[in-house]
Amino acid sequence: MKRLLPLLAVFLLLAGCANIPLESQPMVVAGDKPGQVPADVAEPAAGIDPLTVTRQFIRNSAAPGTANADARVYLDEEARRNWKPSPGLTIIDDTFGTVYDTASPSGNPDEQVVNVRGFKLGNLSADSAFIPVKAEYSQQFKLRKQPNGQWRIVDPPQELAVTDEDFATNYFRVPISFYSPDSGAFVPDLRYVAAKPQAGLPGRVMDLVLQGPSEGLKGAVKDLLGDQVTTETNVRSTDDGTLDINLTGVGGASPADRSLIAAQIVLSLQTVTLSRIRLLADGTALVPEHEYWRSSELPNYNVDIAPNSELLGLMTVNGRVRSLGDGAPVGGPAGNGGYKVVSAAQSVDGKRLAVVEERDGRQWLRAGDLGRDLGSVDLFGGSLSRPTWRPVARGGGVSGEVWTVVDHNTVARVTLAADGRWVKAGVDATMLTGLGQITELRLSRDGARLAAVVNGQLVVASIVRTADSVALRAPRKLQERDLKDVVDVDWATQDHLIAATSSSTLPVVKVPLDGQRMDAFNSSNLTPPVHGVTAAPSRPNLVADAGGLWVASELGEVWRPQAHTVTDADPFYPG
User: Fold this and answer.
1) Which of 127, 230, 304, 518 is 20 to 30 A from 178 via CA?
2) What are the pLDDT digits (tens) for 305-350?
3) Per-residue pLDDT reduced to its tens digit, 175-190
């Protein structure tokens, strides 16, 4: 897949823009006067055949300009007046076919039916989120020769289809930030806005902030603004380069919530503007005595969800847990052989350890303080997936919740009770388990999502918590067509995953959490099959193959041996 537009040029242009109008969200809309094509939009070249007309219509459907004018010029006069495409887009593979339909010829030489065949990669939903889809794409177009001799489409589809390349050219991915009370962190929600006009990017991003979380993240984060908050005036740049945002409807929001709202807006806009931001509510400072904002002035809300730089990670080797930093065993039975460790996980704060222990022909879960005896949990089965820790709310103390998958089909979590015992707690995981056998599970370090390996496919789902329940919602398979035989996964950042596969041609890949693209790591020096991977923010990616442990920081970088590499090791960073 092609890369999205570079940010730098956008940044520089935005810094000096003035009088930015409020722009619509990146959904395809019909416009107020759908039948009128602006004079500066050129008509198609004369004499092109029906197949070319159809292909150019699809290629020009990606430009979300006024009333889809670039695509509308390929329609006849009646269709130009009446065509109202539905919100959203279907993204198809760059290679698609157009052929004349011969099944039901009309007998009229001035009419043709064109069949379009391709492969569907996903949809841009009405809330501007990419939803991966694996399906065949087919559509029929009816064309008629006009009195001037030119072929035009007479029955355009309601659902617009665009190629992946054209989507990447015309749309810009933005992580919209939403607050998670569960972890005290801001969670990215990947959304897509029209890339042009560049000057309107802040306004379009602000529209998405006001719209709230996408359907796939609802319930997993808090909508700080709600339905009542809107902008009183257009998002605009002043003569001194400041970006003005004037909210209304904030009303009786507490000082704490006002500070969170300011952080949400500034974080969401930081990828599309370098300007300082002036935040007002009904004409006065949103946060008293703090009218102007830059992202560098914000507290680090995500400080507790990233492993401390002093925590170098651990590995399991021959039934024991050792340090990745010096290769030495950790303290207690987990390191000295007192437990026959199958897999393990360290909490994000580094203070606790959970291990899967083989005992009496079964696998059991243990958890407790790192370096000490670990409490045995009443949770066992023929197999348990490597544990994964829930993050702690900001300033909330030590991690006290661990998840695992029992026998590939039961998602289980255990929590630390007041009396020091680890007790089982429920998870409604039916939407995930319904997809197949789960072999790996990783909670995101912000606690809003999880990644899983299900039947060898990479899946992401949101975690919705209420006062008395935890449920997994909106599971989505990522890169379902091209990414197969996945054996392990970890969160490199909040919005990107690193996955390892048993494939010799695609052993390690990086995938955004919405699956809109996939990038392969250099496979040099690796000896397939790769059987493990771990990643974390500001850490080198670490994989385990038949020869040992290998590290690489960038996609194109050649893998190099880890300092304390050992055969049959399984590495893991905290989380």
Assistant:
1) 518
2) 989 989 999 999 999 999 999 999 999 999 999 999 999 999 999 9
3) 999 999 889 999 999 9
CB 190 within 8 A of CB 130: yes
Strand bridging mode 449-454 / 438-443 = antiparallel
Residue type, 375: G
**Domain ranges across the chain:** 50-170, 172-297, 314-572
Helices (H) and strands (E) in the chain, counts: 9, 37
Distance CA 359, CA 351 (A): 25
What the block records as the tokens of 113 is 């039916």
Alpha-carbon 9 to chain mean position = 24
Q: Which CATH number does the domain 314-572 belong to among 2.40.160.10, 3.40.50.300, 2.120.10.30, 2.30.29.30?
A: 2.120.10.30
CA distance 295 to 285: 17
- The answer to whether 169 and 62 are in contact (CB under 8 A) is yes
DSSP 147-177: TTS-EEESS--SS-EEEHHHHHHHEEEEEEE
Beta bridge partners of 510: 498, 519
Task: Give the span between the Cα atoms of 284 and 259, in whole angstroms.
Answer: 14
Does domain 50-170 fall under CATH 1.10.1760? My reply is no
Helix (H) or strand (E) holding 113, with range, is strand 111-124
Instruction: With CA atoms as reference, report the closest residue to 258 among 211, 291, 232, 227.
Output: 291
First to last CA, the chain: 30
